[in-house]
Amino acid sequence: MPMRTRAGLLAALTVVGLAAGTTLITPAGAAPGKVPAPRFLAASELPPHPSSVWTAGKVTDGFPAELAHCLGEGVPAYDYRHRVFHTDLDTGAVQATVVTGSSAKAKALAALLNEEIRSCADRIEASDPEVEAEGRSYGTLPVEEGAQVHGLHTAASWGATDVHLLSVGRDGKTVTVVSWGAMGGFDDAPVAAFKKTTTRAVNKLY
Predict the structure, then answer these.
(1) pTM (2 decimals)?
(2) Which of 68, 107, 132, 159 has its CA 20 to 30 A from that of 203?
(3) Mean pLDDT, the chain, as a whole number?
């Protein structure tokens, strides 16, 4: 499939999230100053690619645009940090992490993020009649305060088809979101390996 078709679909999905009106601003009352940063995944901890290696970008401040297609309106920002990963082929991943003010705030944020992901397919279809989307739940993981794993498949009328795996995990007052994406369908998604990646991500928070 030509790269431009998938790029067009990903751009459309990003618009879905950004058009929802997300304002990535630290909430009023957030504690000033730097918070010790949790550790991030390494490239070697992502689901193995059959014919390419993963490359990890730098850990960067802010909320990643790569997650905008599902995490839209109503998601508070705090002080997110993120790392983007890529292969030499058409596969990518991203991890975003935030340290909230308390375990209660982190629990509420994780619940909100999971709900945004669960409703993502419906919002994509409502925003673009040329894209069909389906979401799936791959259950929970018994790591720290828990993690939930989701799947998302999108197919556009012009032929682009993509599958994403997303997870939300929590350790105390820290929440992390991990996303993996490539061309293909649910059968092409490395669910078992992604669950291992999510477990590693949550274990590395503190």
Answers:
(1) 0.83
(2) 68
(3) 84
